[in-house]
Model the fold of this input.
Amino acid sequence: MKKVLFIALTSILIWSCSKNEAVPVDSQTMSKDNTKISTSPMKLLADVTFSEGRLIFADEAAVETYFAALDNDPTLISKLNEKFPTFESSYDAYEELMEMSDDAFDQLNLDDYENIIEVVEKNGEPTIEAEIPFILASVIANKNGEFQAGDKVFKLTHETVYELNVADYSAFKAGNQNMRSLTVYPVEVKSISNSRAQLTNCIQSYRLGRTNHRMIGAIDHHASGPFEQVQADTKHEDQNRRGKWKRDRASRMSQTGSIDIKLSEYVYLNGGLGTWVDISTKTESIARSRKNNSRIYKNAKTVFSTTKNLTVMSASTTHKTNGDDGGNRTCYCNL
Done:
């Protein structure tokens, strides 16, 4: 199953790159925002260790380097799994649940999977989503939402990111949150530059027999502490017997369009003062089609840094699915 899931995510990440073929990068490679990746991906993998069920990166800069490198070389996922065969990521654990049949999934006690899935209200109805909203972070976080960077542990949930010292983590897992090293970041759905909307999505619903189905298209922009992500998302879902919406395969899905993203960085000046400086503005093109799938998306941009900021300047995406009834459905997101 993990090999199948890797193939699926690899396809997603390849489409997240530019029009050029995805190739490995070296220490002199420029990332998509024209900033230099300081450490080669292979050297970075060599420095990653594994202890107490979680991946350990040298520091926070190494995590950002890994995210940037992953956009250029999706095979880093399989190489990480080969190095640590007992590691199961949050992404893998979630995809395994989504691949279950509706009958098998309906038998689960969802409270047993609270670190993997989250039931959220969408349009007034319960919907099953991944516990971690940051796709690249879910690849390096274990199924409990944990990874380590230097002497810091990060614990990710659907609404909160926790950061604290490794020495305090055992006490934190036991329920103690009264430690000085703990920083709690809420997960924020960010607004676009002109503040017209916080989260734009479009929905096409239909009914086949006794089952409700729907297609959702969205432009998502989430941020929490050092994490920030912009992506275009297309899902096909059905409503199970418990009344919850869960991903369901469609015969064909596609998304097209573009997202304009500005990257800014906080730069310190003489005297310790600082200011936000615009680094780049780039249009990320979206053109993707898949058969027999329940979700496709493009990771337009992800950063892991408290001194970098993303702004969605504008976006226009078209989302299409061929439903279980054979009908074609289209919706649009325009920011």
Remarks:
- Residues 2-140+191-334 form one domain.
- The longest helix spans residues 2-15.
